[in-house]
């Protein structure tokens, strides 16, 4: 199972520069690299844990390393989290929905990973800071008890990272709700 590295920057130029530097430094793959609200930059990489550590070390000591505001490395990330980073969600047949809202991209991805590992639920969506004033959400879907377990584990992970804002569960959502959850 691959690892996942999330970096948040206070500079768009710094994020672009360091993305290039990291993929040249080590055998890592870019899942996401883009500006996010409010005026930050997001980089999400996957690969072998040692390759990601090498890339992160190179990033930190680079001339623009001071533009990194937050980073988080998940050694054995759940496969649903990696898939959700770039997926367009489909909500057909949703049974129960759980949503965790966080400050900070690493806290949200950590909550998604913890929730996915705790229960047999789907990570339907990760909205990482765009059009949300810098806030992020992870949306879980599955059976009620699984969503409850995912929400509890995700909340604990986000609280540990000092990023938890709120968490809700909707049992048997109305058929019109899913279209409002989509990006």
Task: Describe the model.
It is a single chain. This protein has 183 residues and is α+β, with helices and mostly antiparallel strands. The strands form two sheets. The chain has a four-stranded antiparallel beta sheet, with helices on both faces. A four-stranded antiparallel beta sheet has the order 6-7-5-8. The two termini are 28 Å apart. Helices cover 38% and strands 34% of the residues. It folds into two domains: 3-74, BMC (bacterial microcompartment) domain (Alpha-Beta Plaits, 2-Layer Sandwich), CATH 3.30.70; 80-181, Alpha-Beta Plaits (2-Layer Sandwich). Strand 2 (28-36) and strand 3 (40-47) form a beta hairpin. The model has no long low-confidence stretch (mean pLDDT 86). Helix 4 (105-118) packs antiparallel against helix 5 (144-160). It contains six helices and eight strands; from the N terminus they run βαββαβαβαββαβα.
Fold topology:
Elements (H helix, E strand, L loop, with lengths): L2 E7 L2 H14 L2 E9 L3 E8 L1 H13 L6 E7 L4 H7 L10 E8 L1 H14 L3 E7 L6 E8 L1 H17 L3 E8 L6 H4 L2
Antiparallel strand pairs: 1-3, 1-4, 2-3, 5-7, 5-8, 6-7
Helix pairs in contact: 1-2, 4-5
What is this structure, in a nutshell?
This protein has 183 residues and is α+β, with helices and mostly antiparallel strands.
């Amino acid at each position: 199972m691959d690892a996942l590295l999330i970096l948040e920057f206070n500079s768009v130029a710094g994020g672009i520069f360091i993305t290039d530097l990291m993929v040249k430094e080590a055998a890592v793959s870019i899942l996401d690299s883009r500006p996010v609200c409010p005026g930050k930059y997001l980089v999400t990489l996957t690969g072998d844990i040692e390759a990601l550590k090498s890339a992160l070390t190179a990033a930190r000591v680079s001339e623009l390393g001071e533009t990194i505001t937050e980073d988080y490395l998940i050694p054995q990330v759940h496969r649903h989290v990696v898939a959700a980073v770039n997926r367009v969600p489909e909500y057909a047949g949703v049974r129960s929905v759980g949503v965790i809202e966080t400050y900070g991209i690493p806290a949200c991805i950590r909550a998604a990973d913890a929730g996915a590992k705790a229960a047999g639920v789907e990570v339907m969506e990760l909205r990482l800071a765009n059009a949300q004033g810098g806030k992020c959400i992870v949306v879980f879907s599955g059976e009620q008890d699984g969503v409850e377990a995912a929400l509890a584990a995700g909340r604990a992970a986000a609280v540990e990272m000092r990023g938890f804002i709120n968490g809700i569960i909707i049992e048997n959502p109305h058929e019109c709700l899913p279209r409002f959850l989509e990006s």
